[in-house]
Amino acid sequence: MVVTRASGGGGGDGDEYRSSDYVHSTFGSRYMQGPIPKWRMPVQTIPKEAAYQIINDELMLDGTPRLNLASFVTTWMEPECDKLIMASINKNYVDMDEYPVTTEIQNRCVNMIAHLFNAPVGDDEVAVGVGTVGSSEAIMLAGLAFKRKWQQKRKADGKPFDKPNIVTGANVQVCWEKFARYFEVELKEVKLKEGYYVMDPEKAVEMVDENTICVAAILGSTLTGEFEDVKKVNELLTKKNKETGWDTPIHVDAASGGFIAPFLYPDLEWDFRLPLVKSINVSGHKYGLVYAGVGWVVWRSKDDLPDELIFHINYLGSDQPTFTLNFSKGSFKFPVKLFVCLLQYLVLRCLLIFFS
After folding, report:
1. Over the stretch 92-118, which tens digit does the pLDDT of each residue have?
2. pLDDT for 255-289, tens place per residue?
3. Is there a contact between 231 and 196 (Cβ–Cβ < 8 Å)?
4. Most buried residue, 98, 132, 236, 307, by CB count within 10 Å?
């Protein structure tokens, strides 16, 4: 089945007919004997089977997801995952009281990731983090936490708090630029140079001033996939903090490398083993046999996430703390895909250990 769009066309009597404004079916059916308006609701209804055919046929003009090798996502999952997704797609995850098991599974995922990234969380403690719609939302949430923490300290010290900035490399993903523009934070970018396409730690720390809310290091550059030297940034920034009396922290954007480094480079120090790393974001849908739209942000401790950013909702009888930019979302993403993603990574880890 194919959908075509004819152009041109004539009209008259003050009601010009332009066939480019209509959807035409190449293959006729008794349910679609005439064109369907493209920009307005049709006057007549059509059966669900015909509506499905029209939309499904038009979607055939899209690219084939299985052939998508260019956008950092995995476009195939096991049939069992598809079944779990469809079984959970009608759950609105924001209603935590209504779907407590969904919430519990997400909390398990957050704790698994926190331990994977060496967060200082005891066996009887609950890690601080949240599932997001990819790393873009995760970065927004982490950035807001840094901005609010910085503002609180500046207010307490009686200093101006209207000109926050963040230091990154020029190789950051566009979501960092969005964060800076949306939430009024100056983006100070370390320029790249020939043969060195990641953020230079020394230049980055040089750009830090009293208004810097954090330094953002990238574990898996969008341009080349390279890991930035987070340990070096931590060393230089620790020294500068001691000299200036500041406490500028580090955020690690591990969208591309967070689920690779712990398995392939377990001795590489980039995560919460470094004292100044206060939060980490990671994407679940990169290289993990998981559909797009899965991410997390995890904080080092409760002190690193200002409580005033957390909303406590009591719609259904109990406290529901929430920190998110997406207020309604299907549970098929949170936590079904999250949990499946983690299970696959755990299998990968076992295989790596077995063959090493």
Report:
1. 777 777 888 888 888 888 999 999 999
2. 999 999 998 999 999 999 999 999 999 998 887 67
3. no
4. 132
Q: Among 308, 280, 284, which residue's Cα sits nearest to residue 127?
A: 280
Cβ–Cβ < 8 Å for 103, 96: yes
139 burial type by CB count under 10 A (0-12 exposed, 13-18 middle, 19+ buried): buried
Domain count, the chain: 1
Single-letter amino acid, residue 249: P
Task: Say if 113 falls within a structural domain.
Answer: yes
Number of H helices, E strands in the chain: 9, 12
DSSP 288-339: SS--S--EEEEESSGGGS-GGG-EEE-SSSS-EEE--S--S-BTIIIIIIHH
Q: Look up the domain containing 202 and give its range.
A: 86-354
- Whether the pTM exceeds 0.85: the reply is no
Nearest to 355 by CA among 232, 258, 264, 252: 264
